[in-house]
Amino acid sequence: MNHFINLKDIPAKDLKKILKDAKRRKKLRKIFNTLEIDKGAPLKGKLLIQMFEKSSLRTRLSFYLAIKQLGGGTLTLRSNELHLGAGGESIEDTAKILSTYGDGFMLRTDNDKKIENFQDYLTIPMINGLSPSSHPTQVLSDVFTIEEIKKTSISNLNITWIGDSNNVLNSLIAASVKFNFKLNIGCPKNYGPSKSVLNWVKKNKKKIYIFHSAEKASQNADVIFTDKVVSLNDKVNKKQKLLRFNKFKVTKKLMSYTNKDCIFLHCLPRGPEVEEKVFFSKQSKVWQQALNRTHVQKSILLYCFGKLR
Ligand code: CP
Ligand code: NVA
After folding, report:
1. Which of 58, 147, 150, 295 is the Cys-Cys partner for 26 at CB 3.0 to 4.6 Å?
2. Has this prediction a pTM greater than 0.90?
3. 7-135+293-304 with 136-289: one CATH topology?
């Protein structure tokens, strides 16, 4: 079994194998209805338990469909309805029960330490469905979407991130090392990636390019990514932070600095960081991006259950 916690800890060859499987499976599903099961039902009888400590629409739905289409099922828990959430049961005992009843565990949490603690006691695979420091299932799926649209390896493309240095960007940085693509980041001063992330990039002999100008960061971009300036449960002065990011909005004008066929991606939900004119433009591929979560997560589940061919 394999956990799927952070892209930086997963070998590049495994990540590429997941994407190859997702591409094959997505093609085969063209004639299937939403809840029809893939040939061979590779996860027949398996239960994925999902737990959300923060809101979710896409991750919840896409994991539901992913495990269903592989022949298994899912149960969704809210931590505040468990003894764990109310402080009445330890992570150790909760993890042992989850491992007794279920076959896989997906956690969206407010606390990176909790993921580590669960890992110590679970005997079933665990998937990180977003934590304060990363969002690995989102970004692996985004690599898939980019290669699907651009019909080339992401290593041939210039990717630009405009906005906050958050969980999604951390995973995108890890992906830039694993998949070897050029990554520009446009963010205000003092809002760049953390020292530990930059040190990890350096240790891996990779360079990322940080600009304190959205225009400079966007030049020659094949893909423009952004995300909310204020993430879920981000304990900051929202008004002040939004003001600091005023010049880091994805506008029609900003898109004019990019390469001709540049696409726009956003993991959603969105805020004022993108103009509607861009969000609803032809260049915007956000709906395809959201739907691909299901396809890629199916192959992530197979990887976790040791069933990836
Ligand atoms: N992009 C994403 O993870 O969406 P949800 O928060 O709705 O799951
Ligand atoms: N960075 C965002 C992503 C939401 C899917 C957040 O953590 O709120």
Report:
1. 295
2. yes
3. yes
